[in-house]
Amino acid sequence: MSISEWPESERPRERLLRNGPQSLADAELLAICLRTGIRGRSAVELARELLARFGSIRALFCAATQDVRATPGMGAAKCAQVLAALELARRSLREELETRGVLNSPREVRDYLGLVLARTDREVFVALMLDAQHRVLASEELFHGTLTQTSVYPREVVKAALRRNAAAVIFAHNHPSGVTEPSHADELLTRSLKSALALVDVQVLDHFIVAGGRILSFAERGLL
Which residues are within 8 A (CB) of 143 and not within 5 positions of it... i.e. 6 or more apart? Predict the structure, then answer.
């Protein structure tokens, strides 16, 4: 049965407008993004299948585009609708960090970095450049490939921080393997960057590793 045949009081869109988005389950919110179902399955049923396939909203947003497209019923249009919702979430979090600052929004920092890095199938190193109030000045992808102390150049990181007139930075990189544990090279690199930036009075607040839907903080591990 299509959603249009449901009683109006049970339709997700009408309930959202009447009671607010917080009243809807994840599958119902996702169904509104999908807009329509497919033959034999409503949008809510398709949304439930997506969540069952990937395990959670975060895991769905982190999944590769080809994996989302491989779900029966997820054509180009529906996949584009999900990606658009993801990009809106990313931009909203970015605006939050630009206005409130990262120290006032620790969860938003994690969510933002997760959305930025989780879908990448290669290793990428990014830096959040922060002002003296720890608001985001810029988010820059500085290096990509296999990250080692020799492929991420402290000199280039220092130049990028000075170019943005940053007072502090947060680093993040992803592990496409899905393993969050930092390697010995990750720890050496972090110490090298922290020492180089200290010479120009730029503070390193944290270094995150993003692996699928999981995020590890160097600061919380006592590795800074």
Answer: 124, 125, 151, 152, 153, 156
Q: Report the alpha-carbon distance of residue 97 to residue 110 in Å, rounded.
A: 11
pLDDT digits (tens, 9 = 90+) for 171-186: 999 888 888 899 898 9
Quickly tell me which residue has 């000199």 as its tokens.
155
Token code pair at residue 130: 């922060």
Question: If you search the block for the tokens 């943005």, which residue do you land on?
Answer: 164
pLDDT tens for each residue of 130-171: 999 999 999 898 887 765 544 788 999 999 999 999 999 999
Which residues are within 8 A (CB) of 32 and not within 5 positions of it... i.e. 6 or more apart? Answer: 12, 13, 16, 24, 43
Rounded Cα distance between 34 and 37, Å, is 7
* Direct distance between the N- and C-terminal alpha carbons of the chain, in angstroms, rounded to an integer: 55
**CA 107 to CA 124: how far, in whole Å?**
21
Going by the DSSP 8-state scheme, the letter that residue 38 receives in this structure is B
